[in-house]
Specification:
heterodimer; A: 202 residues; alpha/beta; Rossmann fold; five-stranded parallel beta sheet; five-stranded mixed beta sheet; 4 helices; 21% helix; elongated; B: 328 residues; Elongation Factor Tu (Ef-tu), domain 3; Ubiquitin-like (UB roll); 7 helices; 18% helix; 34% strand
């Protein structure tokens, strides 16, 4: 089951919907891992929009699971990349040459959705016009508020900053500009008093 | 809703001005330029802003909104261009006939309900007739900033195309003018097709043109955040009606040729307002009780609010029926 219902939280925390077809001249779909299932669901009822679609898919640890069925949707362009970072030059190239009327669909982990949304926003699409659907892992992209370093795919709270080594607690405070949640030192007032890490949403 | 400082009186703060120039542009449109009567520079304004001009027409106060069309970087002068409306309520006629250089007037501080979205990669302006005015200020601003813009300006005829020649001469590659009497019109779908991502479109003109731009952009998949419009509604005359204002404890009559807001002001009620044209939301008033039919004409309340009869915008909307009680 790739769906997860996030509990209600503060206003800063992003909320995700279900991808729906939108009227547009062209469609850009970016997904990672189980995010493929959201595209497949979209394609099941609306196969036509894939005729003008560019699909960018990063399988992560799903390997070959979804590649065949995504290709069967017969998108106009279909790219499978080894990582989000590797797909960024392509995403930027597509957005820089795109015209008004482009619809953007994002699906998969919060890290992918946030970063791809940021690229689309910088290209001039208001964030409210970008669709997103969360699927798969609840891992987060975290920024350490102390050293500003980003740690990808954080799954426990607290966690160790991969840059400065501080123990950070996972907050729902989110930055659209950084496409990251904020992590704050958990033992700032009582150095060394670090709770046992627990899985997010466990 | 806003963090504006608390004020003693409704409406924006006022400025006393002196008419420094009156320039007829064509048969229908005249430009009026103001300097401050106290000799100070005007407050800076952002392009797209309007001011409300207070006119004393034979003892009757008229408050009409006009877009500021002068260069926002020039704080010595504010300018408006006014189209004479022979069928209107008389504000534009009064300006055309009775106002001349040296006259003193009162205007409000600028209020902007039609700002540029400066995140836009490109600004596409669509003007219909006198709707050209806010774009004059926007163009001056973007030229200074080096912003990308393009103007498509539709007017009735060459003779009535205010500023058309001037704009075309100054920016030949950015301005396209269309004359109705030569059967020219903006090829909107064609124009929208292929605009770069991040383009914002702004339309100022008659209601039909605004609706056309909103529906066409929506059908082409443009986000509504990228489509901006401004239309000032003039209050329309209608059947007189009676209103009970319960906070002020007053029963007032709204005449055929005045708005509910004007009737409240005439009765000494200090009702809030900013645009007086159904756009800004400032005058929103709660309905306590009503028996009859609302004639909603504003752009502020949504369809549900128009249907449920719990709110009214007294600057442009009216009422027909037995009784109306407002929380004012």
């Amino acid at each position: 089951m790739s769906r997860f219902t996030f509990p209600d939280s503060i206003a800063s925390r992003p909320v995700y919907g279900t991808l729906e077809p939108k009227q547009g001249k062209a469609h850009l779909m970016i997904a990672d891992a189980e995010g493929a299932e959201a595209l497949l669901d979209l394609g099941m009822h609306n196969p036509d929009i894939f005729k003008n679609s560019h699909v960018i898919f990063i399988p992560k640890d799903t390997g070959q699971t979804y590649i065949g069925s995504l290709a069967d949707l017969d998108p106009e362009q279909f790219y499978v990349g080894p990582s989000y970072d590797a797909s960024v030059p392509r995403i930027r190239r597509v957005l820089s040459g795109a015209h008004m009327g482009l619809q953007v669909y994002l699906a998969g982990t919060e890290g992918l959705i946030g970063q791809a949304q940021n690229e689309a926003m910088q290209a001039g699409i208001p964030h409210t016009a970008i669709q997103s659907e969360h699927r798969g892992s609840v891992a987060r992209r975290m920024q350490c508020v102390h050293c500003k370093g980003i740690t990808e795919d954080v799954t426990t709270d607290p966690f160790v900053c991969s840059h400065c080594g501080l123990n950070l607690f996972v907050r729902d405070h989110y930055s659209r500009r950084l496409a990251a949640f904020q992590g704050v030192r958990v033992d700032a007032e009582d150095p060394g008093n670090i709770p046992v890490p627990v899985e997010l949403y466990s | 809703m806003s963090a504006a400082p608390q004020k003693v009186r409704a409406g924006a703060e006022k400025i006393d001005v002196t008419i420094s120039a009156v320039t007829p542009l064509n048969e229908l449109v005249t430009r009026f330029e103001f300097v401050r009567s106290d000799g100070e520079p005007f407050p800076p304004f952002s392009p797209g802003a309007h001011t409300i001009v207070e006119l004393n027409d034979g003892g009757r106060t008229r408050l009409n909104p006009y877009s500021l069309m002068s260069d926002p970087s020039d704080l010595s002068t504010y300018a408006i261009s006014v189209r004479r409306d022979d069928q209107g309520r008389g504000g534009s006629l009064f300006l055309h006939r009775n106002v001349s250089v040296g006259d003193e007037l009162t205007i409000t501080y600028p209020v902007n309900l039609f700002p540029l979205d400066l995140r836009g990669k490109k600004h596409l302006f669509l003007a219909g007739g006198i709707g050209i005015t806010p774009f004059m200020a926007m163009i001056a601003h973007l030229e200074r900033m080096g912003g990308a813009w393009e103007l498509h300006y539709s007017c009735r005829s060459r003779a009535l195309g205010s500023y058309a020649d001037e704009l075309k001469k100054r920016y030949p590659s950015k301005v396209q003018v269309y004359f109705d009497d030569q059967a020219q019109s903006i090829a909107l779908e064609n124009l929208l097709d292929g605009q770069p991502l991040g383009t914002h479109v702004y339309v100022c003109g008659p209601k039909g043109m605004i609706d056309w731009v909103h529906s066409t952009t929506a059908s082409l998949g443009w986000p509504e955040e990228n489509v901006h419009s401004e239309e000032f509604l003039a209050p329309q005359p209608g059947k007189p009606f009676e209103v009970r204002l319960c906070t002020s404890d007053m029963l007032i009559q709204v005449g055929e040729n005045e708005s509910l807001l004007e009737a409240m002001e005439r009765s000494g009620v200090d009702a809030p307002f900013l645009c007086r044209g159904g756009a800004c939301g400032q005058c929103e008033t709660n309905v306590i009780e009503s028996e009859g039919e609302f004639l909603h004409r504003d752009h502020w309340l949504d369809d549900d609010e128009h249907a449920n009869g719990k709110k009214i915008m007294p600057c442009v909307s009216r009422f027909v029926g037995k009784s109306l009680i407002l929380d004012r």
